[in-house]
Backbone:
């Protein structure tokens, strides 16, 4: 495809943004997988029929968005959700002493169910659509601290409910097993009270104050891939956001 031959239209994008979009689409489609090196700037320019300068500008934009990363003198690679990156980018709970620790996650149950109105709206699917429901409890400093309910569209993740276990880092798992890279997430926080299930799983009394974080996570192509509700006992932890 030679991008220079395309005529400007009502939704015209600068050439480097078109290259940025094409590279992203190929990553989403699995042509270049997490951790793999992209073709060189020269090869990409030849493939797409644009200048190396245009490719370089597109790769700079993708680097800023953390879709790719560069190794000086080696090349450009598709970003991968390592545990270290996930700890500081997507996991915002930390102990009150400020020590960042990636918590263990005990899987309680995986089931296949129908999306109620709340889950359907969050995942942007039709109510009644089949969804996977993951229930697990995270432990910090040997204390059960966070109860998680995670909802995934069955059409994206298939028979995940047949898995006997899941890794602690689900975003890394999504990327490796399903080629779904969580790129952005929006969290909504509110105060709530422990219900009977919270009380049992978090070892607190019914009515104990909890912090609820509702997350909608999007993939590289912008589609919603996960709805997660975390209910945390904040007696010994807090939710940390660093603004730059």
Residues:
């Amino acid at each position: 495809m030679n991008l220079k031959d395309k005529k400007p239209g009502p939704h015209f994008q600068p050439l480097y943004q078109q290259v940025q979009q094409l590279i992203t689409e190929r990553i989403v489609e699995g042509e270049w997988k997490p951790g793999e090196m992209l073709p060189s700037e020269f090869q990409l320019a030849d493939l797409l029929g644009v200048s190396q300068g245009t490719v370089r500008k597109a790769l700079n934009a993708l680097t800023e968005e953390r879709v790719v990363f560069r190794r000086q003198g080696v090349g450009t690679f598709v970003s991968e959700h390592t545990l270290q990156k996930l700890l500081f980018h997507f996991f915002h709970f930390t102990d009150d002493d400020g020590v960042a620790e990636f918590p263990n996650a005990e899987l309680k149950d995986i089931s296949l169910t129908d999306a109620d109105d709340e889950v359907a709206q969050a995942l942007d699917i039709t109510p009644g659509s089949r969804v996977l429901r993951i229930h697990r409890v995270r432990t910090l400093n040997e204390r059960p601290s966070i109860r998680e309910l995670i909802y995934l569209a069955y059409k994206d993740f298939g028979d995940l409910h047949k898995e006997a276990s899941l890794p602690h880092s689900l975003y890394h798992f999504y990327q490796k097993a399903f080629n779904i890279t969580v790129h952005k997430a929006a969290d909504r926080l509110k105060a709530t009270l422990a219900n009977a299930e919270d009380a049992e799983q978090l070892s607190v009394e019914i009515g104990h104050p909890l912090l609820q974080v509702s997350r909608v996570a999007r993939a590289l192509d912008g589609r919603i891939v996960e709805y997660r509700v975390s209910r945390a006992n904040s007696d010994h932890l807090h939710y940390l956001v660093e603004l730059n």
Observations:
- The chain has a mean pLDDT of 86.
- Helices lie at 15-28, 41-48, 52-64, 83-89, 117-123, 154-157, 170-178, 196-202.
- The longest strand covers residues 182-193.
- The radius of gyration is 21 Å.
